[in-house]
UniProtKB/TrEMBL annotation:
Pfam families named among the record's database cross-references: Omp85
Bacterial surface antigen (D15) domain residues: 279-571
Keyword field contains Transmembrane: yes
Signal peptide: 1-17
Name of the protein in question: Outer membrane protein assembly factor
Amino acid sequence: MYRVLFLLACLPLTAHALDYRVELEAPSELDALLRGNLDLYTLQQDEGLTAQDLDSIVAGTPAEARALLETEGYFDSEVKVSRDGDTVRVRVQPGAPVIVSAVDVTLQGPVRQQADYSRFLSRVMEDWALPEGAVFRQDDWDNSKKAALRPFLLDRFPQARLTAAQVRIDPASRQARVTLTVDSGPLIRFGDFRIDGLQRYPASIVSGMADFAPGAPYSQPSLVALQAALESDPHFTGVVVAPLWEQLHDDTVPLGITLSEQQRQKLEVGLNYSTGDGAGTRLGYEHYNLLRRGYTGSVAYDWKKSRQQLDLGLGFSRGGDGYAHSLNLQQRHAEQNLTVTDATELGLFRIRQRDNIEARFGVEYLIEREQIEGEATRDNKALVLSYGWAKRAVDNPLRPAAGYLLEGHVSGAGLAADTRFLRGYGRGALYWSPSFMRGTWLTRLELGQVWADDALQVPASRLFKAGGVGSVRGYDYQSLGIVNPDSGAVTGGRVLATATLEYQYPLTPAWRLAAFVDAGDAADSWQSWRLARAQGVGVRWLSPLAPLAFDIAYGARDQRWRWNLNLGLAF
């Protein structure tokens, strides 16, 4: 018996919160504010709350509620609180809100001597959240004060401050008069660049990427652009760009740039495999400091049984105008679908990368020979002008669940070409993960057309084929096109259209099941274009390096099953 009593005495006591409920009577637009902030609600589950504490909270609720209502512009509210046993009733009558009757914003300091002074005032008022006639709200007042400083902090006047911020409220007339004064402070200029971490590469690589020089007015967007440019440059793996405010002198602030360098040379050796043309090898070499001027040189050779390709590249770092340049030479040999193609391309490109958008201008000279079984050999050459634009706006580049990808190209040849042609191409992908169901939907659309006087004299690389990964699964790689009825050889067409609808179901964070429908074709004209359908299932492994996709698809046109293996996003 004593043992039982001893054990019971050792059992921990369990604390319970006071059991009471709150009935709130208030306009619906104020319901969330009161329930989310009144102590009656926020402390309801507090196990340490005593009956005496609850009495104190009930007594203080009217003042607490009125203070909350004032933040929403209600300065003449009535709050009644009563208690009936375990029930606390709160009745709120907010009354009429206070309206902003006048707004007086004044700018002082050197900004008044700027030629675009009026633009600063306009930008302040663009984001102003309390115009005349609006209900006065505390959040809007706080946001307006921040908005008033923002134009100065971003452009030339990073030391701007508020010297006056006052709201005069007349509860009787329910009117508020807002007064705000901004002192711009001195006009700040950039000083010299203090670069830390350079050992292999010249400082001109860094300074050349800035769209400003020492002595230029301070600009926060320019700092962000320089940071992004250095991060995307292959010479560096880590970048920090920040003004050295502790060294500010004579209204000039030095710019600190801390870098981590990439290795000067890189050798790449690899094995790869794709269902389109089997196993292969890749040899690559890159040098990031040619002639000790920071030029990037690259050599890459890809070998597969049906395709060999040699690429030589010379890259120049981005300049202050935001553009980088590259010179590329490519030699390739391919044997596919009873067609043998040898081509040489020399191209000069001007590239602009900003945020998630890349624009590319190019001039390319192409010499190509295409031997088609059962047909005469085609020899083509062309001087091609091109423009490309791409945007990647997804939530996660390696495992997207929401967002989109867009890409478009326009190119054409006139002079120094066997025939004049114009080529247009575009593709897009949309990722959608609805909140009402598990999984991710993927849709993809691809369109292209070539306008030419003589399609036979258009280089084969500028015509279209379909089939395989990233196109219509269930058919061999680039097997959809113009088919020679005698030899079965496949050549490119002047029109292309393919589409995909895919659903991915998550099994674990790294594994997904997929079901999809693909359709499309490449043909000589839209009149001869015929839909080739395919459907299938697959599995996705979202590896740390890139997504790996394995698919099995059934091609309805030839009634065959085929499998595809792909590393990376199929876009």
